[in-house]
Specification:
The complex is a heterodimer of chains A (117) and B (115). With 117 residues, chain A is an all-beta fold. Chain A is built from no helices and 12 strands. In chain A, the strands form 3 sheets. In chain A, strands 2, 5, 6, 10, 11 and 12 form a 6-stranded mixed β-sheet that branches. Chain A has a 4-stranded antiparallel β-sheet with strand order 3-9-8-7, with no helix packed on it. A two-stranded antiparallel sheet of chain A has the order 1-4. In chain A, strand 8 and strand 9 form a beta hairpin. With 115 residues, chain B is mostly beta strands. Chain B contains no helices and 11 strands. In chain B, strands 2, 4, 5, 6, 9, 10 and 11 form a 7-stranded mixed β-sheet that branches. In chain B, strands 1-3-8-7 form a 4-stranded antiparallel β-sheet, with no helix packed on it. The chains are: A mainly beta (117), B mainly beta (115).
Chain lengths: 117, 115
């Protein structure tokens, strides 16, 4: 079974600065997807960024980028130029590529990020 | 238009009661899910259905019974509610379980409080 570990329960950053959230995972599979989801106080689950394991290039979405280290099974999220609206719980998640009963998201326990003015 | 919608958004009830949460998606997806988020914010899958067929049942008590009348709807019925059932329940959908392309689309969650 896959597991996802986020070792930072809480983090804070000053507005306009850069912060990195850590995530490691464990799997025996070679092809899979990794995600970062954001959950603001509104409770909505919002996809921030995704990475296909077969792609070596790190995914980027505007101010959000990942550092994907497949051999180390590490998938960190970097937020540049942090904004107050980035304050949220951030979840790292894993999805197998094998489909069927493995077509599900396995989440880490989350990191609560607070952006301070 | 809301892609994945759940009702009700909030539900407060007494122990021992039976309640249902409804979910509908208008994305044309084949696969739907129920996730439970506990008080520590941990998200765990409960069930998945693909085109009305149960695919995943993650050791959830028998008091929880999902029902999928068609592939656009997945409802969750809970019998004999217990205090530990208090949580936020998220419905989600995904396009094709045999060709997983990634992300799931989530509803806004239903907060259930059992007194």
């Amino acid at each position: 079974a896959q597991t996802v570990t986020q070792s930072q329960p809480e983090m804070s950053v000053q507005e306009a600065e850069t912060v990195t959230l850590s995530c490691t995972y464990d799997t025996s599979e070679n092809n899979y997807y990794l995600f970062w989801y954001k959950q603001p106080p509104s409770r909505q689950m919002i996809l921030v960024i995704r990475q296909e394991a077969y792609k070596q290039q790190n995914a980027t979405e505007n101010r959000f980028s990942v550092n994907f280290q497949k051999a180390a099974k590490s998938f960190s999220l970097k937020i540049s130029d942090s904004q107050l609206g980035d304050t949220a719980m951030y979840f790292c998640a894993f999805m197998s590529n094998s489909g069927g009963s493995n077509y599900k998201l396995t989440f880490g326990k989350g990191t609560l990020l607070t952006v301070n003015p | 238009d809301t892609a994945v919608s759940q009702t009700p958004k909030y539900l407060v009830t007494q122990m021992g009661n039976d309640k249902s949460i409804k979910c509908e998606q208008n994305l044309g997806h084949d696969t739907m899910y129920w996730y439970k988020q506990d008080s520590k914010k941990f998200l765990k899958i409960m069930f998945s259905y693909n085109n009305k067929e149960l695919i995943i049942n993650e050791t959830v008590p028998n008091r929880f019974s999902p029902k999928s009348p068609d592939k656009a709807h997945l409802n969750l019925h809970i019998n004999s509610l217990e205090l530990g059932d208090s949580a936020v329940y998220f419905c989600a959908s995904g396009p094709d379980m045999d060709l997983p392309t990634g992300e799931l689309f989530f509803g806004e969650g239903s907060r259930l409080t059992v007194l």
